[in-house]
Amino acid sequence: MTMFNSRRKSSLPSPSPSPSPASSSTSHPPSSSGGDGGGGKVATRVLVPIRRPSGMPNPNGGIAATTPPRDEASRMTKPGIRSSPHAKSMAMEDDAFPIVTTAASGGDGNRSTCPRTPKRSSARSPGKDRIISSAARGSLASKTPSMSGIVVDGGTTPGRGTPPPRELSSFASPSSSIAAVAAAPACTTTTTSTSPIRGRSGEEGEGVRVCVRIRPMSIATSDIDDDDDDAATAQPRAYALSADGNAIVRNSPTDGRGGGSTSEDETSRLCVYDRVYGENSTTLQLYEEMVADIVESVVRQGRNGTVFTYGQTSTGKTHTMHGILMAVGRDLFGMMMDDTRGGGIPSSFSPPHRKSLTTVRISCMELYNEELRDLLVCCGGGGTTTAYATTTSLPIQEDRRGNVQIPGLIERIVNDIDELMDAVRTAEGNRTVGSTAMNERSSRSHTIFGITYERREAMKAEVMHSLDGSGQGGSSSSEEEEEDKENNRMSKSVTTSSRKVITTASNLYLVDLAGSESVRVSGATGQRQKEGGKINQSLLTLSRVLSKLGKRDGGHINYRDSKLTRILKPSLSGNARMGCICCISPDFKYLEESKSTLDFATRTMLVRTNAKSNTKVEYDDGLVKEFEREIERIKRETARSDERRLQMEKALQESEDEIVCLKANIELALGRAKCIEREKTRLEVHLKKEICDLKKHNNELERTLIENESEKHILMKRQEDDRESYLRELKQMEVEQTLMAEKKNNEHQEKLKALSVEIEALRLGNTESVINLSNCVAELERTNQDLRGQLASAKNSNNAAQENDVASLKATIDDLTKDKLKLEQMLTNEIQKSMDRRNEAKERRRKFKGKLVGMAETLKDDLVHLSYQGE
Ligand SMILES: Nc1ncnc2c1ncn2[C@@H]1O[C@H](COP(=O)(O)OP(=O)(O)OP(=O)(O)O)[C@@H](O)[C@H]1O
C-alpha cells in the first residue's frame, strides 16, 4: 500500500489521446483510438495527464462511490514492479507502462471525410459521464435494436442507430464472409472510429466489447519475405491489414507497406469493432479504453468481469494480457486505497457504526491438453511441458445454481500490487510454454487469472420484524430484492435497531487463450501438433458457444464440450461484463488466420451479457459480532505483521548496514589483496630472476667444481707421483750416501789403520814416515774437507729441493683438500726423518771428525813428542 501511495505522488505524462492545446495546435489529424493504420501517419506525443473520474454513481443504487479526484498523472507512473523472470513478460513492461507514450493518428486520415471524435475525452473522462453515457447508450440502443458494429454501407456509424449492412451470419465462414465484406464498397466515413465504446445495449444487458490489436510487423523475422531465396531480390513484406479508425482495412497485395498510398478501390474495409489498435498502440492505451471500467465495476459495483485475449499464435496475446494484469493491479489497489481513505466505501478506519473489510484474492490456473492445473503451486518445472506431469489435475464442479467450483484451487490473498504481481510471475513461470516455428515461447495452454474482490461491510440497520412472524435475520439476497421486500413488509412490521453485513464479492477473470495455429504456418509436429490440435478444438468450442450466444435463439448451448467453456460458463452465460481482445498479425502471409480471428471477433460482438451486482445482505447480530471479531483479529494480525515487518525492516536495515560494512571491508581487503598481489607479482619476478641467476651461478660453480675436481685429481696424482719419485730418489740418495759414507768410513778406517801403522812406524822414529804421515793427515784433512763440502752441498741441494717441493705442494694442497695436508704432514715427517737421519749421519761424521781431529792432535802431539825426542 505504501508503495502505491508513493507512486501516486509522482506524475508522468500519460498516453491520453484527449485533445490538448498542444495537439490541437498542430496540423496533425486528430488522434484516433490508437490505431495507426500501419500507414505511418503522424505520431503526436501527447503529454496531457488523463483525468480520471473523481467518483461515480452506482447505477444499481447500491454502494455510493464518491471518490475524491485521483491524481491521474500518477496512474501513468511506472509501478515499481519487480521484473519478471519470465522473458516473455519482461518485454512487455515498457509497453504496458510507457514513460511517454505515442498516440498515433488513426489509420488513413485522408480517407475520413468526417472529423474524428477525440476518444478519451468522451470515452473515459470523467467517469460520471461514462456511466451516464452507458445508460444513454442503453436508451439509444433500445430504439435501434440489433446493432453490432459491423461495417456499414454508406458510412453510417455503428452503434448509432443504423442497422448493419448485412446479416451477421454471413461471417460464419471466415473466408466467405471476409471476402463478401471485402467486396463491399469501401466506407467513406470513419466518424465512429473514436467514439466511446459502444454498449451495443439496445437489448437487455450490454454487448461484449471487442477490440482488435494488430501486432507490429517483426523486422527480425517477417520483414523480408522468407519465400524469396535470393536475399538481394527479396521484397519487404506487404501489410495485408491495417487499422483505419475502428475499422480494419485490407490492403491490396500491391499496396506494399503501410497503406498510406492506398487508393480507395485497391483496399477494402473489413469490419468495424469497438476499438482497433494499430502497431504503435500501447497496452496501457488498450487497457484504459477497453478494460479499465470493467475493473472499476468489479471494484465499485460488485459486478463480475471477464476479459480474454484471442488470436493466432505469436500475435501478442500474452504480451497484451501481461500489461493488462499490471494495470489491473495498479487500478484495483488504487481504488481500494481511495476507499480506505474514506473517499468511497467506508472502511475499517471509518466511524464505528460502519466497518468494512476488503480482501483481494488471486488464483491462476491453466488448461493444458484439457487438463486443469493450479499455476500457484510451485511445480519447479520451469514452465516446460514436462512440468505438467508433476502437478495434479484439478476437477471442475458445478453447484445446483450453475456456479463453477474448482476444489483445491489455491486462492492467494494479496495486499498490494507487488504481491499480486508476485503471484502473476509465479503463474507465468509455471505456465506451460514451448518453442514453435512462430514463437520461441509459445503458450501451450489457456491461462485463467481469477481475481476476487470481496468487501464486507457492517453497519447499523433498522430491522423490521414482521408481525406475522417472518423475521429477517440471516436472510440473504441481492440489495434490490431486499429493498422490494422491505417495502412490502413496511406496513405490517415493527422496526427494531440491529446491524447488517453487506458482502460484495465480485470476480474478474483475465483469460489468456492459447494461440490458434495451423500446421501450415506453425510447422508443428509430434507433441506440439497434438497440443495444437487440443488448443484448436477448445477454441472451436468457445467459438461455437459464442456464436450460439450471439444468435440468442434460445437453443441449447453445450458448454460441456470443452473444459474452457465449462469454466467460462458463468461469464459467458451472462453474469459478467466482458471484453475480448483479438490479436492479429498485419502480414499477408497470415491473412487467412487473421480473417479467422476477425470472424471470431465479429461473432463475439453479438454476445450480450447482463452482469448483476453480487451483493449479499445479512441481518444478524451474531454475524456482525463474528465479523467484528474477525476485523479485530485481522487488525491484531495486521498489527502483529506490522510489528514483524518493522522488526524485519530493522533487521533488514541492520543487515544492509552490515552489508555496507562488509562491502567496505571487502573493498579494503580487495585493495589489500591487490597490493599483496602486486607485491607478490613483484617478488615472484624478483625471485625468478634470483633463481635464474642462482641457477646460472650454480651451474658455473658445478662446472668449476668439476674442473677443480679433475684438476685436483690430476694434481694429487702428480703429487703422488712426485712424492713417490722424490721418496725413491731420497732413498736412493740415502742409500748412496750411506754407502758412500760407509765406503769413505771404510777407506778412512783403512787409511787410519794405515796411518796407525805409519804412526807406529813413525813412533819407531822414522821422520819420513812422520812427514808422510803429516802429508797423509793433510791429505786426510783435505779429503775430509771435500767430504764435508760434498756433504754440505748434498745437504743444501737436498734441502732446497725438498723445501721447494714442499712449498709448491703446500700451495697446491692448501687450496684443495685436507688430504693434501695429511700428505704434507707425512711428507714433512718423512723429511723430518730424513733430516734426522741426515743429522745422525752428520753427528756421526762430526764424531768421526772429532775422532779424526783427536787422532790428528794425538798424531801431532806424538809428532811433536817424537821431534822433541828426535832433537
Ligand atoms: N504489440 C506488441 N509490441 C511489441 N512486441 C509484441 C507485441 N505483440 C507481440 N509482441 C512480441 O511478439 C512475441 C510473441 O508474442 P506473444 O508471446 O505475446 O504471442 P502470443 O499470441 O501469446 O503467442 P502464443 O499464442 O504462441 O503464446 C513476444 O516476443 C512479444 O513480446
From TrEMBL:
Record flagged with keyword Transferase: no
UniProt feature, compositional bias: Basic residues: 1-10
Region Disordered, annotated ranges: 1-204, 245-266, 466-497
Pfam family name, one: Kinesin
Xref: InterPro entries: Kinesin-like_fam (IPR027640), Kinesin_motor_dom (IPR001752), Kinesin_motor_dom_sf (IPR036961), P-loop_NTPase (IPR027417)
Amino-acid positions noted as binding ATP in the UniProt annotation, renumbered to this chain: 311-318
Coiled coil: 624-844
Keywords: ATP-binding, Coiled coil, Motor protein, Nucleotide-binding
Low complexity composition bias: residue spans: 21-33, 169-199
Domain Kinesin motor: 207-607
GO function term, MF aspect, one: cytoskeletal motor activity
Entry keyword Nucleotide-binding: yes
Record family assignment: Belongs to the TRAFAC class myosin-kinesin ATPase superfamily. Kinesin family.
Protein name according to UniProt: Kinesin motor domain-containing protein
Lineage, top ranks: Eukaryota, Sar, Stramenopiles, Ochrophyta, Bacillariophyta
